[in-house]
Each structure stands twice: as structure tokens, then as C-alpha cells.
Design goal:
- The protein is of the alpha/beta class.
- The chain folds into two domains: 146 residues, Rossmann fold (3-Layer(aba) Sandwich); 201 residues, Dehydroquinate synthase-like, alpha domain.
- The chain is built from 13 helices and eight strands.
- The strands form two sheets. It has a six-stranded parallel beta sheet, sandwiched between helices. Strands 6-7 form a two-stranded antiparallel ribbon.
- The chain is globular, with a radius of gyration of 19 Å.
- The termini are far apart.
């Protein structure tokens, strides 16, 4: 099987870049359909209008869930207005929805993160949930977005918790890519991991360790330092290319299992993935130094390392076993681990990770 790496056609990052959206978009069409939240539109429309020129723009408000009901609704809206380009402005579920709409309509897509809370912007993947927010499936797309535009001036003004959540998502990238490399599993673009992808995944982890705390403290003060720029790139690009071209394994499978517990729905994707990373390391019987570095990083940034921190204040064995069984579903990514994993193994690893987290906190 071939080695394959996927990436957006263009990745653009810098302060004030949102005002250039319409100019960049001319490479793909003349009219934009912009999917965003109501509050998001208020934040981004003034900057977009600075460079709008004669570009036609239609805005629509995202309903809150990346589900087929919402995707089908938006397809009909776009058909009605006849826009050339789908633009998703906001967070991960808006990005995934915009990518899915563009895929089904055979249109180009531009992704504009206003937060750095996930690695969804650069990926050729949409995570589809039910209307109630329970994970249903991965929609693998034929290509990454045509363009990803990151205005770091806007992203750095978002609540610090969102940047921290992005670091939680990015935290899994190297460990999952490493597991896939060890098992010779295929990546998310239908090939094997390249040297470039593996090195990007490792660079992602090293950037988190080197710049994560500095970035967190800067964002809490509402400022955009070089550390913040580094973490935005790590959360968005390095993690996006690293996970997709390196592969997914245990951490994201654990995340998907956790969506079955209603108490976890109030947490962000990356917060649950961070706990999933610790669970994966316990499954692997990783070295103490490695586990401690991850626990220390999570503790300093406030990422969850216990079930209680996930909102699960009453631990019910049957509920944790349901998480374990879902994480081992045939169509999920636990099968990419370099050894056989059973629901009993995952149950033990979840409880072991929780015990470690409680011990060190």
C-alpha cells in the first residue's frame, strides 16, 4: 500500500487575515455561503466586509450539531441561493458540517477557525453525530479543504478553555500516529504513514510541551504572543495533518465511547480526547516518565485526567463498560492499536487511568 499524506491546498495563518477572505476566495468562485453562529457573524462580518468588494455573501446560522438533519437542511438552502463556495466559520462542528455540505454538493470549501479547539479545520473528515449528539460515524472525504484561513488575532481572543481543549485534542496526535505506525495500520486518507506525517505528529507534541503553558497564560490575558501563534499552528495544522496522515487509534475511540454518557456532553471534544490519551497510554503500559509528562501537562492546563473531571461523579460499572464496548466498535479506530484490545481491556484501562489521575491530583 502506498504512503499518503493529505493537507489543505492552502493554509494561511496570521493576524488580521480574515479581511482578505474574499480576495483569497476568488481562486474558487465569486459567491460565498457562510455557515457560522449568530454571535460568530457579529464578530467576523466587520472584518470580512473590509475586503468584500463585489463578492456576494449569504450567511446562515448553524443549528448546533453536525448531523445529517442539519447537513440536508443546509444543502437545500445552498441550492436556493446558488452560492459557489461553502465557508465554515467557527468551531469544529461548523467546520465538519461545512465540509460535508460541500462534499455532497461538489463545491469547494474554505474553513475559517475562530477558535483553536480542535484539529478539524485541515482534515478530509467530518464526524457525524445523531441529532442528540451521540457519535454515529466518520464521513471520509476525498480531499482536505481547499483553503484554511486562521486569523490569529481573532483566535487568541477566544476563551482560554477553547485553546486548552485544542491542546487536549492535539495531545493525542503523536501517540495515536505512533500506535498506527507500530501496527502498520492505514491512516485516514487510505495509505500508510509517511515520514513527514510522523514527524509533524511528533512536532505537534513537542510544541505543546514547549509552548502550551506560555500560550495558555497569554490567552488568559487576551494577548497573542509567539507561543500562542505556535499553539494555534500545533492545534490546527500540525495536529490536523498529523492525525489524518498518521492515523487514529485508542484516544479518539475512547472519546467516541464517552459520548454515550450524557454527563460528558458539556465537555469539549479535546477535553475528552485528553482523557482518552491517558487511557491509551495505560492500555499500552507506557513508561512512567511518558505518562507523568502527560499527566503533568494536563494538570497544569486543566485538562481532565479523572472521571470526576469529565462530569462523571457517580461511576457506574455498567456505564463504563458501555463506553468500553462502544470504543471497540468494529467501525471505530481502536482496531489500529498494535495489539488486540477487548472491551474488558478498555474498561480496566479507563479505571486505571482514573485511579492514576486521582492519585496525582
Amino acid at each position: 500500500m502506498a504512503q499518503i499524506i493529505g493537507s489543505p491546498t492552502r493554509y494561511i495563518q496570521g493576524k488580521g487575515e480574515l479581511k482578505n477572505l474574499c480576495e483569497y476566495a476568488k481562486n474558487f468562485g465569486e459567491s460565498l455561503f457562510v455557515l457560522t453562529s449568530a454571535s460568530g457573524r457579529k464578530r467576523v462580518e466587520p472584518s470580512i466586509n473590509e475586503g468584500k468588494g463585489d463578492t456576494e455573501i449569504t450567511y446562515d446560522v448553524f443549528n448546533g450539531e453536525c448531523c445529517m438533519t442539519e447537513i440536508n437542511r443546509l444543502i437545500e438552502v445552498v441550492k436556493g441561493v446558488g452560492s459557489d463556495i461553502i465557508v465554515g466559520i467557527g468551531g469544529g462542528k461548523i467546520h465538519d458540517t461545512a465540509k460535508a455540505v460541500a462534499y455532497y454538493m461538489h463545491k469547494p470549501v474554505i474553513i475559517v477557525p475562530t477558535i483553536a479547539s480542535t484539529d478539524a479545520p485541515c482534515s478530509a473528515l467530518s464526524v457525524i453525530y445523531s441529532d442528540e449528539g451521540v457519535f454515529e460515524k466518520y464521513l471520509f472525504l476525498p480531499s482536505s479543504p481547499n483553503m484554511v484561513l486562521v486569523d490569529t488575532g481573532i483566535v487568541s481572543k477566544a476563551p482560554a478553555r477553547l485553546l486548552i481543549s485544542g491542546m487536549g485534542d492535539a495531545l493525542a496526535t503523536y501517540f495515536e500516529a505512533r500506535a498506527c505506525k507500530r501496527s502498520d495500520a492505514s491512516n485516514c486518507v487510505g495509505g500508510k504513514c509517511t515520514l513527514a506525517a510522523m514527524n509533524l505528529a511528533e512536532l505537534c507534541y513537542n510544541t505543546l510541551i514547549d509552548s502550551g503553558i506560555q500560550a495558555m497564560t497569554a490567552v488568559k490575558e487576551g494577548i497573542c504572543t509567539k507561543a500562542v501563534e505556535n499553539i494555534i499552528e500545533a492545534n490546527t495544522y500540525l495536529s490536523g495533518i498529523g492525525f489524518e496522515s498518521g492515523g487514529l487509534a485508542g484516544a479518539h475511540a475512547i472519546h467516541n465511547g464517552l459520548t454515550a454518557i450524557p454527563e460528558t456532553h458539556k465537555l469539549y471534544h479535546g477535553e475528552k480526547v485528553a482523557f482518552g490519551t491517558l487511557v491509551q497510554l495505560v492500555l499500552e503500559d507506557a513508561g512512567e516518565d511518558e505518562i507523568m509528562e502527560v499527566i503533568d501537562f494536563c494538570t497544569e492546563t486543566g485538562l481532565p485526567i479523572t472521571l470526576k473531571e469529565l462530569g462523571i461523579t457517580e461511576v457506574k460499572p455498567e456505564q463504563i463498560m458501555e463506553v468500553a464496548e462502544l470504543s471497540c466498535a468494529e467501525d471505530d479506530t481502536m482496531g489500529n492499536m498494535p495489539f488486540e484490545v477487548t472491551p474488558d481491556d478498555v474498561y480496566a484501562a479507563i479505571m486505571g487511568a482514573d485511579a492514576l489521575g486521582r492519585y496525582y491530583t
